[in-house]
Design goal:
heterodimer, A: 509 residues, alpha/beta, 5-stranded mixed beta sheet, 3-stranded antiparallel beta sheet, elongated, B: 116 residues, 4 helices, 14% strand
Chain lengths: 509, 116
């Protein structure tokens, strides 16, 4: 038998699942034809029709047995068994609505909470702080977070930021690193600006370059002085995401290779832009920094950079320390102590929330385990009430594995329905979270239901079903048919049947 | 089954059915069962229901095809016919069984000589 033959057989068996009723009818006709042919032969040998029919059925091995052998050969018996168990489970659960509702709700809360927390864990901890940072050529560990914001104070200018860039390649200053990743809710009246301090717009070390159009630099001060224009008079080039244009201003931007294109013709956007982000970019809006426009107190700029190949965080820190000492020597009016602290970008963005999120995840996991334990006890109690049913099943030939499979199917159905409700609940939570723009947990807005989270939920559901069902299954399936029947017989009173000998009664099942 | 009757080895029934169809042409399930019993000199008494499981397996591999027709006694029955892939498979399986049978024969012959 070749692989092709095996494949053909498997395909035929799967196809047969769809044509089962028709195949069953056709086989019944074939069995009738078989019996007719056999009866004809036996009658020719001198038997009566009744005797011939009995013999034909005996030689066939029994009609029902023949049907079952045929069905096993025709279809996938394991699928048949699963379908059978599912049907039985449905009937059993519908018969006990209160138990079903309670169990499903417990599991829905447990699985839903785990799904929601895992979505958060994935967004805050498992995913890189910068999307695409794991791409070839970008070493996530070498990215460093904002380090010069507070220290530069009112003395930020292009030269100093440029000096700070020395240990990195390349470096960009910007406002609010968290906002860089969370600008989903940008609207016309709530523009949040992410600014660059260098000559070219864009963050070459982050995956936020312009998808089309040109990334122009802002005019330098000397160029503006030469043109006799103030910074305010020179609209700065900005890069905007096409989706933002469409969502906020109802227009689809067209890229133009000119500096100040006003491309939203039907409904003019309240800003000029010259480039459009590629569709995959998660940043909504990017605009170069003009130092004259920057407030001159407090945190001025943050800087994101990537270490040179041969630099370490410690060596970069040494360079920053040397620079700070130099700034202090050069600029006596510095009021604030310069402290350029370096840290990995992921620590900067979500470092403080990591422990809390992990703690929450552990707590939710423990709650689910407790729920599993309670539900398992509930199922065990219920299974002990069904002892008689299991005895009958075992007496009819059901193996222990078959009985365990039946109880596991039950817990899997409960966990599955619970998971569906839980996922719906988690989806609501994620939707609400993405709308809470001012939530203090960084990156929380990007949590959601993706394939990874769904795979986690599926794993949790199966594990939950196994935890809930395996103990009752192992306990309730330990059935000694002889003992159970003897015990049943001892406790049974035989009804007296008028005129009968008392032996025709049987235990009702 | 009496001591004189043979238990069929796993997989032999399919080959018997294929061989019967290959040599005798289209037959219905009952006909196949009777021919096998007759050909074995009634050494094999089949549980005739198992014939239909074998027929399903052979159909799934496309080694035989089935069609409803009328028997010689004017009874409606499903007739099975061996297909070209079935003939190829029969040839291979027959050769395989022949080799196995030869090997077993030789081994038994050696033991027979030792016993003397």
């Amino acid at each position: 038998v070749t692989m092709l033959d095996r494949f053909r057989a498997l395909r035929a068996r799967m196809w047969s699942m769809l044509t089962d009723a028709r195949d069953e009818r056709e086989f019944d006709q074939e069995l009738e034809a078989h019996l007719d042919l056999a009866i004809d032969e036996y009658v020719r040998r001198g038997m009566t029709v009744d005797k011939a029919r009995r013999l034909a059925i005996v030689r066939l091995g029994g009609l029902q047995q023949a049907r079952e052998t045929h069905r096993d050969a025709r279809g996938l018996s394991i699928v048949d068994r699963i379908v059978q168990d599912l049907r039985f489970t449905r009937r059993a659960l519908v018969r006990e609505p209160w138990f079903t509702v309670t169990a499903v709700l417990i599991l829905a809360i447990g699985i839903g909470a785990n799904t929601a927390i895992f979505g958060l864990v994935r967004a805050v901890i498992l995913q890189p702080a910068v999307r695409g940072a794991g791409a070839p050529g970008v070493d996530r560990q070498r990215q460093i977070g904002p380090f010069a914001g507070r220290a530069l104070g009112g003395h930020a200018d292009g030269r100093r930021v440029g000096l700070l860039a020395a240990p990195f390649t390349p470096v960009r200053g910007h406002y609010g690193v968290q906002r860089l990743f969370c600008l989903r809710q940008l609207s016309a009246d709530r523009q949040r600006r992410t600014v660059t301090a260098r000559r070219r717009a864009g963050f070459p070390q982050l995956p936020v370059g312009p998808g089309c159009g040109a990334a122009h630099r802002p005019l330098l001060q000397r160029e503006r002085d030469a043109a006799g224009r103030s910074a305010r008079d020179c609209p700065q080039p900005r890069i905007v995401a096409a989706s933002v244009c469409q969502r906020s201003f109802g227009c689809r931007p067209k890229c133009r290779h000119r500096r100040q294109g006003r491309d939203c013709r039907r409904s003019p956007a309240p800003f000029d832009f010259s480039s459009v982000f590629s569709p995959a970019t998660r940043v909504d809006f990017l605009s170069p920094l003009v130092f004259e426009e920057v407030r001159t107190w407090g945190n001025t700029v943050s800087i994101v950079g990537r270490l040179h190949g041969d630099s370490t965080l410690a060596s970069a820190q040494q360079e920053i320390d040397a620079l700070s000492a130099r700034f202090k020597r050069e600029e006596k009016s510095l009021l604030i102590e310069f402290e350029g602290g370096l840290s990995p970008l992921s620590d900067e963005v979500s470092g403080r929330t990591r422990r809390a999120v992990l703690l929450l995840w552990t707590a939710v996991g423990i709650v689910l385990l407790i729920a599993c334990g309670n539900l398992s006890s509930l199922l065990l109690t219920r299974a002990s009430g069904r002892r008689h049913e299991f005895v009958v099943r075992a007496a009819l030939g059901a193996t222990r594995g078959r009985l365990i499979a039946l109880l596991l199917t039950e817990s899997l159905v409960l966990a599955g329905v619970g998971a569906i409700l839980g996922i719906a609940g988690a989806h609501v939570i994620f939707t609400r979270l993405s709308m809470l723009e001012n939530l203090a947990i960084p990156l929380v807005q990007r949590s959601g239901l993706d394939a990874f989270v769904m795979a986690f939920t599926a794993t949790v559901t199966i594990a939950t079903a196994a935890l809930v069902g395996i103990w009752p299954g192992l306990t309730a399936s330990r059935v000694d048919v002889n003992e159970a029947l003897k015990a049943g017989a001892r406790g049974m009173s035989w009804p007296r049947i008028p005129g009968g000998d008392g032996h025709s009664a049987s235990e009702g099942t | 089954v009496s001591p004189q009757k043979l238990d069929l080895l796993q997989g032999t029934l399919d080959l018997m059915v294929l061989r019967t169809l290959g040599t005798l042409g289209p037959l219905h399930g009952y006909g196949i069962a009777r021919r096998i019993e007759q050909a074995s000199g009634d050494a094999v008494v089949l549980n005739q229901g198992t014939i239909y499981a074998a027929l399903v397996r052979l159909q799934q591999r496309k080694w035989i095809s089935a069609e409803w027709g009328t028997s010689e006694l004017n009874r409606r029955a499903k007739f099975y016919t061996i297909t070209a892939p079935g003939r190829r498979a029969l040839k291979e399986e027959t050769s395989s069984w022949q080799r196995l049978s030869d090997v077993m024969g030789r081994i038994f012959a050696i033991r027979g000589e030792e016993a003397k």
